[in-house]
Specification:
There is one protein chain. This protein is α+β, with helices and mostly antiparallel strands and 172 residues long. 40% of the residues lie in helices and 15% in strands. It is built from 6 helices and 5 strands. Strands 2-1-3 form a 3-stranded antiparallel beta sheet, with helices on one face. A hairpin with a 5-residue loop joins strand 4 and strand 5 (157-159). It is elongated and about 65 Å long. It starts with a strand and ends with a helix. The relative contact order is 0.11. The model has no long low-confidence stretch (mean pLDDT 80).
Length: 172
């Protein structure tokens, strides 16, 4: 028996099911009306996509050309559309400690570096005119004291939850 895949997507609302055809049909008969209502349109607008397709067995040759909902490769990296300088400007970071924590946030969120060295931060911040001739090693202590960064056992640094919220909330 071949598994079946169902996906409903409208705006931010999305439901996805996989399993036997009987299972998927049973779930659809029970929940489809409420899912459509939760999607914001009991009749589903033209931009909504509803599909229920058989899924090929894992050992079958893959033909992605006919796949209804293509999947993103696991190694996919989104293109960063904002530079560090633009991000610093958006956050209105001026003080050295603010520049440092914003730089760390940028490395984590936009370059997916969950941990970094002081040299990584220095290299990133060196491109900013506001950073001038400052050294990360000198400014790092105040950011660690504030609890925005944390030193890991291997000597790397990571952004803390408090640091994430500080940057996300506009440096307040």
């Amino acid at each position: 028996m071949q598994p079946t895949h169902f996906r409903l997507k409208q705006g931010a609302f999305e439901v996805e099911l996989s399993g036997s055809a009987e299972f998927v049909e049973r779930q659809l008969s029970r929940y489809l009306a409420s899912w459509m209502q939760a999607a914001g349109d009991p009749e589903l607008g033209p931009e909504a996509r509803v599909a229920s397709t058989p899924v090929a067995p894992a050992d079958a040759p893959q033909d992605n050309s006919s796949e209804v909902f293509p999947r993103v490769r696991p190694d996919f990296q989104p293109k960063v559309n904002v530079s560090l300088a633009e991000f610093v400007h958006m956050k209105e970071a001026v003080s050295p400690s603010d520049l440092l924590v914003v730089g760390a946030y940028y490395l984590e969120k936009y370059h997916r570096q969950e941990s970094f060295t002081a040299a990584d931060l220095q290299k990133s911040l060196a491109q900013l005119p506001a950073w001038d001739c400052r050294q990360v090693d000198i400014e790092l202590e105040s950011v660690l004291t504030m609890g925005w960064l944390e030193r890991l056992r291997d000597g790397h640094y990571t952004l803390t939850f408090k640091g994430q919220n500080y940057v996300r909330d506009g440096l307040v």
